[in-house]
Amino acid sequence: MKNLRIAAFTILATLFVGGSSVPLGTALAQSKPLNFKSINVDMPGVTLTQALGINAEGDIVGRYQVGSVGHGFLLSEGTFTTIDYPGGISGTTQAHGISPEGVVVGYYTDHGTIVGGNAFRTRAFLRDASGNFTAIDFPGAENTFAIKVTPAGQVVGCYHHQNSDFAASGGGTMHGYVYQNSTYESFSVPGTMHNGITRHGRIIVGVWFPTPTEFHAYKVEEGGYQLLDIPNSLSSDARDVNRSGEAVGFFIDSAKNTHGFLPSKGEFTTIDFPGADVVSTQARGINPRGDIVGFYVSKDASGVSHTHGFLATRNKDEDDDKEANPH
């Protein structure tokens, strides 16, 4: 499988621990040059493409839509493969994470019996490199999401019940989880969603929803839970983390614009796909070399929005510098 290479960013962020703020840096560094490449599923009628995960081999997973019908995809060595969970509601599959061995995780929509009757529900899956699917359903939950997977087969995501995510106590029934070998471990903080995990599981990143309209990125390192607040942000969401501890995600600034981010070595920079017509960018995945994937939204002259995936890589001299000075 093809190896892809990418960018290193430097960043300034503020980390909140138990309500107190801990500065991660003292200056906003300049963004290092990045090589951006747009990713669009090359099929007739596709109206949306989102790149959501990338592995060490450079294989990319995500989702695309034909009209309003969505499908997961795998992009490997220039070839797109559609991923649809068998037996679910057609056109609802999303692929979010991929391991170096080609194991893909994601979720789809299904009909199910829930509290209060029948309704749509979200079900998670694991697809091995041969195309065989395994269901991931947190015991007793009505909805389960799977977002990323490690080489060892650890899966992270969240679970919750229908229509009760944000109870008066805050967060309701929504919790992050770690799944491996049919065993589930729930995260104790309500309103959380695990989105990324390092190779050996020592660092997990995600997003906490204290209310349906407010969200904040977090990191769990060696069991310690910390909120990560981004400068000049209203809300933030951490989406992946690599073995060096470099996390990516996105935030909404005070002007209500959306940017990707990556905190690294106590500094902070934004990730924005270039172009005057681009109105928002989200970073969704990072691999061990620092290759980053995500998606951006542009508006054409008539004001119509278009969503495209992207891959961002760094220049070779920066890559050599990182290898000479590893984290």
Record the SSE blueprint.
Blueprint: E1 14-17, E2 20-23, E3 34-39, E4 46-54, E5 60-66, E6 69-76, E7 79-83, E8 94-98, E9 104-114, E10 117-127, E11 133-136, E12 143-149, E13 155-160, E14 175-180, E15 183-186, E16 192-197, E17 203-211, E18 214-221, E19 224-229, E20 233-241, E21 247-253, E22 258-264, E23 267-271, E24 278-286, E25 292-299, E26 305-314, H1 316-324
Antiparallel strand pairs: 1-2, 1-19, 3-26, 4-5, 5-6, 6-7, 8-9, 9-10, 10-11, 12-13, 13-14, 14-15, 16-17, 17-18, 18-19, 20-21, 21-22, 22-23, 24-25, 25-26
Descriptive overview:
The protein is mostly beta strands. The protein has one helix spanning about 315-325; strands spanning about 15, 20-25, 35-40, 45-55, 60-65, 70-75, 80-85, 95-100, 105-115, 115-125, 135, 145-150, 155-160, 175-180, 185, 190-195, 205-210, 215-220, 225-230, 235-240, 245-255, 260-265, 265-270, 280-285, 290-300, 305-315. The strands form 6 sheets. A 6-stranded antiparallel beta sheet has the order 2-1-19-18-17-16, with no helix packed on it. A 4-stranded antiparallel beta sheet has the order 3-26-25-24. A 4-stranded antiparallel beta sheet has the order 4-5-6-7, with no helix packed on it. About 45% of the residues are buried. The model is unreliable at about 1-30 and about 320-325 (pLDDT under 50).
